[in-house]
Write a structure and sequence with these properties.
This protein is an all-alpha fold. It has helices spanning 4-24, 29-38, 44-69, 75-96, 101-124.
């Protein structure tokens, strides 16, 4: 059972992730996973599973429809990526279930720093 504060945090996390997904085209997991771990004290594997469970339907349906209507979706590329994402996500989920939670946190942090560094570096070019 969640407290009133935890419910408010979940609402704020969801809204923030949704807006960032629509604006930046990023998976909300970049925000949802750290927020669940640090604000709501979820174990890392549970945060990842929860993030995956909630992000696909709302983000996928709303954002994809909007971008598709604006002719901003390459359907062929999206189909290939979706198929490979499905396969990769299954393997990734199997791997995470066997991984130490602390190592997973470290790897996630390194991943976020690499993306941030690349984004900053490429913005200068």
């Amino acid at each position: 059972m969640f407290s009133a504060l935890e419910w408010c945090l979940l609402v704020a996390i969801g809204l923030t992730a949704g807006v960032s997904s629509g604006v930046f085209g990023i998976g909300g997991g970049i925000l949802v996973v750290p927020a669940l771990v640090f604000l709501l004290h979820f174990p890392m594997p549970r945060a990842i599973g929860t993030s995956l469970a909630v992000l696909l339907p709302p983000v996928g349906a709303a954002a994809v429809w909007s971008y598709y209507r604006a002719s901003m979706v390459d359907v062929r590329a999206a189909a290939v990526l979706a198929a490979m994402l499905f396969v990769g996500a299954w393997f990734g989920a199997q791997w995470v279930q066997r991984m130490d939670s602390h190592l997973l946190k470290v790897l996630f942090g390194v991943f976020l720093m690499a993306i941030g560094g690349y984004t900053i570096y490429s913005a200068r070019a």
